[in-house]
Amino acid sequence: MTTDHEDKTAIADVLTRYSTAIDRRDWSLYRTCFTDDIQADFPTGAWKNLEDLASFMEEWHANLGLTVHHVNNIVITVDGDTATSRCYGNANIQTSREHPERVLNLHGFYDDTLVRTPDGWKISQRTAKVVSAVLEKSSELSLVSRP
User: Which of 25, 65, 114, 123 is the most exposed place for a label (fewest CB within 10 A)?
Assistant: First the structure.
């Protein structure tokens, strides 16, 4: 039997792993965050299974430059083998490999339902909302990393 603190720590790890997986383009790691029957609703579309969601994310990120995703202000409520969470998300996305100075800054939040599985906590439902999207061009090109 795990404690509430242990469950919340494990769930926060899933939320962080999601960001890490995207930024590393580690789609195997990405898949560990979700149940096979994930119900996902993003501004870019909706999915009802993991393979379709993961395939979309891999394709969508293929031509981007570097990305940096953050999650913070994580609030988790555990109820037995299910949990809900809300976390804020920020993403800085180089919109192309050829022009890493062009960066899309996204700010929003994720509302999630998670379930305890034999492999640990996984997201079974995710709704992503974008509150702000700003396209910028970096003026300090010497500091911008290339993919």
Answer: 25
pLDDT exceeds 90 at position 139: no
Evaluate whether 83 touches 100 at the Cβ level (below 8 Å): no
Determine the Cα–Cα distance for residues 69 and 72; give it in Å rounded to an integer: 10
**DSSP annotation of 2:** -
- Across the chain, mean pLDDT equals 95
Asked if residues 12 and 76 have their Cβ atoms less than 8 Å apart, the reply is: yes
Nearest by Cα to 136 from 89, 91, 85: 91
Q: Determine the straight-line distance between the first and last CA of the chain, rounded to whole angstroms.
A: 44
Number of H helices, E strands in the chain: 3, 6
Angle at Cα 15 formed by Cα 127 and Cα 11, nearest 5°?
Answer: 105
For residue 145, name the pLDDT band (cuts at 50, 70, 90): confident
- DSSP 8-state assignment for residue 32: T
